[in-house]
Amino acid sequence: MKQLKQIINRTIKDLKQINVTLSGDDSGLTTIWDEVCAQVRSDNSFYWDGYIDTINKVIQSHMQVLPVEENSEEKEYYDDCDFQTDYLLKEIRSEVLTRAQTYHNSRVNRYLAFA
Length: 115
Hints:
By secondary structure, this protein is mostly helical. Helix content is 68%, strand content 0%. The protein has helices at 2-17, 32-40, 48-65, 73-80, 85-102, 106-114.
């Protein structure tokens, strides 16, 4: 479970560092993370699939570099789940989006106030 939390935290950290946005220069949103947070609390935009693709790619990059130790609690978890990459990707993405629903910063709050 510790590795799953690491992937979630690293994914969010990476999304906060991606400064290419689709919402427009006048939106006040400066990162993909800002945009995702705004999107999950309002209507999904035309670009929602692009946001999901970006989230998936970031998650997958972290899933590849975090090994599962043979005698770890995570190994038992993966064995119990029949360790399917798609399943884990969806679970991690779901948690990332859940955290986006409760994340607040001034840019997201300002955007939502005028959306």
